[in-house]
Write a structure and sequence with these properties.
about 260 residues; alpha/beta; Rossmann fold; about 40% helix; about 20% strand; disordered N terminus
């Protein structure tokens, strides 16, 4: 990682996870909202953070932040939109491209300051990325570089379709090369059509990616979608919470 005065580790050790995707539009926000509701139902004081959001129309002269608003509502955290999503841009593009279109600069120092404040108010944080892991986040760094100092494990969300194996394996390789911890993968079928079971996506991702496919979400029609997502995310939250807390404890011990 390049030396830059805008990059530093957050001040404390926190519990939580980062939801990243193999691409944009794979269902990160929907899964993040589902997990926020599930952890909330388990009695966890959940906080949410979408540090950079792009492709948002204006409200009262400012980019609206649709994904961040959904996360706030799902978590019941009570945090303001400005804190949950400190950088919001109108252009639907990579963060750096969207920032350049408005003549603005994305400062990691500001992001870490807000993250510290939010994480200090909550028991567990859900951080949602913008697009994939290797999208440019500012003039010098990728999104992977931004989340590395947070020391939170990754949940990788991928669209369950032909080609997903390569996309997931590339994301895993990029994450591990930077020392990021992996919770696992969630496969999400976003479009109706034939099932992908015969393509052995889960089997081959686990075999070659050396990780677990923690959830496989088939295409959900609008009728009954909310209930089924609640069930899936409830099971997923129960499954990953012990691992999240154990990784947090290991990080604390490392710095003692």
């Amino acid at each position: 990682m390049l030396a830059d005065k805008s990059v530093r580790a957050p001040r404390m050790i926190y519990y939580g996870l980062v939801i990243t995707g193999t691409d944009t539009g794979v269902g990160k926000t929907e899964l993040g909202c589902g997990l926020a509701r599930a952890f909330r139902a388990r009695g966890v004081r959940i906080g949410v953070f979408k540090p950079i959001e792009t492709g948002r129309p204006e409200e009262a002269g400012q980019p609206a932040g649709e994904d961040a608003k959904r996360l706030i509502a799902a978590s019941g955290c009570g945090s303001s939109l400005e804190k949950v999503s400190p950088y919001r841009f109108k252009l639907a593009a990579a963060p750096l491209a969207a920032a350049r279109a408005e003549g603005r600069e994305i400062l990691f120092e500001k992001i870490y300051q807000v993250f510290d404040e939010l994480a200090g108010e909550h028991e567990l944080m859900i951080v949602e990325g913008a697009g994939g892991l290797l999208v440019p986040a500012n003039e010098n760094f990728l999104f992977a570089d931004l989340i590395l100092p947070m020391q939170l494990p990754l949940l990788i969300v991928a669209e369950d379709r032909l080609g997903v194996i390569g996309r997931v394996l590339l994301t895993l390789e990029a994450a591990r090369s930077r020392g990021l911890e992996i919770l696992g993968v969630a496969l999400n079928q976003t479009q109706p059509g034939a099932g992908t079971e015969k393509l052995r996506h889960k089997e081959l991702i686990e075999e070659f990616g050396k990780t677990q496919v923690l959830a496989r979400i088939g295409y959900l029609a609008p009728a009954g979608r909310e209930e089924e997502m609640a069930r899936i995310c409830g099971e997923l939250a129960e499954r990953i919470e012990p691992r999240i807390r154990e990784l947090g404890r290991q990080t604390v011990l490392k710095y003692l």
